[in-house]
Amino acid sequence: MNPSADRKLTLIGAGLAGALLATLLARRGWSVDVYEKRPDPRNKGYEGGRSINLALAERGLDALRRAGLQDVVMAQAVMMRGRLVHPQDGGPPTLQPYGLDDSEVIWSVHRGRLNIALLDAAEAAGARIHFNQRLDSVDFERRVALFVNDHDRTARPQPFEALIGSDGAGSGLREAMRPHVALEERFQPLGHGYKELEIPPAADGGFRTDPNALHIWPRGGYMCIALPNTEHTFTVTLFLPMQGEPSFRTLPDLTAAREFFQRDFTDAMPLMPDFDADWTNNPVSGLGTLHLQRWRMDGRAVLLGDAAHAMVPFHGQGMNCAFEDCLALDRHIASAPDFETAFAGFEAERRPNAEAIQAMALENYVEMRDSVDDPDYLVQRALEQALARRHPGHFVPRYSMVSFTCVPYATAFERGKLQRAILVEATRGCATLQDVDLANADALVRERLPPLPAVPA
Ligand code: FAD
Ligand code: 8RB
User: Fold this and answer.
1) At what angle do helices 318-335 and 16-28 cross, to 10 degrees?
2) Which of 10, 11, 16 to mutate to test the pocket of ligand 1 (most atoms within 8 A of CB)?
3) Most buried among 69, 304, 389, 408, by the most CB within 10 A?
């Protein structure tokens, strides 16, 4: 479709996906209005909350690059080379590199600053962002959306041509679509929740522990992680079952929480002088996967990002996937003859990929919390790295396909299964990599794995 001044697009939500998509569409010449329920984060007095960081990987970086935002974002990113695994006995942590070298790393970025950079870019491209405007309801018959300002309780009806739901996991557009479309919505709760804590800077202002890693304290049924911030702090997240032993339920008070941390996260405790305040003030939040069989209502509405496919956090791909959605939807809108065709093409392309990353994210929780110090896992991982070096562009570890390439998630998921079978088979009965018959493993790779298809630019 060729954009024209009288063909406007209405986006709901100016979060990470909404702000990026607004930039892409406005640059193509579409007339773009974005309605965001919260106030403008660029206004003074808005910030002051906790500093929350996100892991940015190649898919997200690729989208930012295409939007011309790489430099501004990367100027404030902290490199994470691998997992730094902290053992239970308090012994020294060990680094498991994510990739083969420093070109294969992930980046910790500040959510608030990233969102602001995206909002600035969207407005510079010509998009209009309306803050304090929550989508309340939609008259799809007459194509009018009702927005409410939650501060002064005023309501504004707005005519629209097509609505794009980038309004996150609690999407108001999804709710408005529900009575009209069989979305076949299913929320799969994880049964585990999370709580955020902080490691502040050291007395000399520096980092209290290694900044160039994603720290993991794996404890079998649960874990802590920590990501670095440019302010020399770390955001620590405890992931724990909601019920059972131990669980958020069995840590009813600060004394129980402190004992639990002293016992299980011994080396982390001295890094968190504000533990008591953080534990008391920060909420426990739930986690889960949102499955939808339909993301659209003919040419009138479409969902993307968390609104369409919220996932558990354990692959650090929610934002990366949402950004990839933005590139895809922009491309479909540009090439299809009408919105209905564009939205259908978008959903057909992205839904299988969203399902694949949702499944891989669930699997990565078990990998992170349980198997990272398991002997079988370690020998398989050693072989995986050996095969990755021996068969570049052919045997690519699943983590690498997900984090360092834009190979479709569904392809990464399928090839990951074939590769896993090779690793299990070739390491059977082997305690170390020296015991593995590499010639046999090479033969299995050539026999079972077709070369990895190139991803078009
Ligand atoms: P959001 O970014 O949530 O944006 C939705 C926007 O819509 C918000 O601004 C909201 O105010 C607005 N909105 C909601 N309802 C309405 C309404 N009715 N009307 C108008 N506006 C509305 N992903 C990664 O890739 N890597 C990570 O390391 C990572 N870490 C995370 C850490 C935390 C603590 C959390 C919570 C998430 C993390 N994620 C991470 C996931 C990532 O944040 C999301 O997947 C991503 O933000 C999805 O983008 P979105 O635009 O779809 O939704
Ligand atoms: N949402 C991440 C990874 C994979 C790390 C690995 C994992 C916190 C909420 Cl849990 C997690 C990863 O396999 O070694 N990369 O990036 C980010 C993660 O959690 C983020 C910070 C998070 N997301 C609600 C909390």
Assistant:
1) 20
2) 16
3) 304
CA–CA distance, 114 with 97 (Å, rounded to integer): 26
DSSP state of 150: T
Instruction: Give the residue among 400, 404, 440, 399 at the shortest CA–CA distance from 422.
Output: 440
Q: The whole model's pTM is what? A: 0.98
**Ligand 1 proximity of 315 Cβ (cutoff 6 Å):** no
User: What distances in angstroms separate CA 9 from CA 30, 33, 128, 270, one per listed residue?
Assistant: 7, 6, 11, 51
Q: Is the CB of 104 under 6 A from ligand 1?
A: no
Give, in degrees to the nearest 5, the angle at Cα 331 between 328 and 337: 125
**C-alpha 74 to ligand 2 mean position (Å):** 19
The rounded average pLDDT for each run of 10 residues, N- to C-terminus, in the chain (457 residues) is 82 98 97 98 72 94 96 97 95 94 96 97 98 98 98 97 98 98 98 98 98 97 97 98 97 96 97 98 98 98 98 98 98 97 98 99 96 84 96 96 98 98 97 97 97 83
